[in-house]
Amino acid sequence: MKRQPSGFTGLVGIMDALRSERGCPWDKEQSAHTLIAYLIEETHELIEAVEEENPDKIREELGDVLFQLLFLARIEKEKGTFDIYDVIAGISDKMVTRHPHVFGEGVCETAAEVLKQWDAIKKSEGRHEESSLSGVPKTLPSLLRAFMITDRASRAGFDWRETVGVLSKLDEELTEFKEAVSLNDPAKIEDELGDILFTIVNIARFVQVNPEDALRKTINRFIGRFQHMEQSAKNLNNKPLSAMTAAEMDALWEAAKREGSYK
Q: CA-CA distance, 114 to 120, in Å (whole number)?
């Protein structure tokens, strides 16, 4: 087998070869739209690797994500629009322009000052002229999208002054939700539940927790504990959870919590 050049240029060459006339039939059939699913999959695998704090896996998954980006850039090159080097030039220029406190004479002492400066520079570039909330992708998971939208609104000056205010708002929304449930009004219940979730996102922002990360970790803990319960039930009396009493399941759940190894 012919040895391929190493480094970034070598990887670009591999991508070019895969898409060439004598390249891989599967790779040649792909389009930007068909690659979306693979990009999402590889990104989530990278997130898992980061949360597992596994350096070898992070390195591998970073490579998979990078290759998807090269793939998309190669497809655009074939259309005559841009190539991966144009992408690199564009992001390099953007990062230098958006960090005048690093590459210029600007001064920012805190992360908050950096974000305020970032928004100001974006507006000066003609971005987000219609609204401070423009540019948040509609395809984001709703929890993450809500977090980004409330963060944008806060940076525009629309926010509570302290945590107690948003906590009081949660109490208010819970009361309205209970009223909707008592009235058995499905549309109202949905609206009020949405308000509760949105308020919780604001609380998460106030305490500097990303709600998407927090919920994902809670889901993982639940899966670990539940599977521990299933295995314990099988080991103890070889019967499924569905055949156990509530008290028996509570005991297994508490044992799983004490295990404490589920992230």
A: 10
Spatial neighbors of 215 by CB under 8 A, at least 6 apart, are: 143
Segment 23-29 long-range contacts (CB within 8 Å, at least 24 positions apart): 27/71
H helices present in 138-210, as ranges: 142-155, 163-183, 186-206
* CB-based contact 51:81 (threshold 8 Å): no
Token duo for residue 257: 């919590």
Inter-residue contact 151 to 119 (CB < 8 Å): no
Question: Which tokens in the block code for residue 192?
Answer: 């009020």
Q: Measured on CA atoms in the order 121, 123, 128, 132, is the torsion positive or negative?
A: positive
Residues 127-169: pLDDT tens digits? 656 677 888 888 888 998 999 999 888 888 888 888 888 899 9
**Residue 160, number of CB atoms within 10 A of its CB:** 15
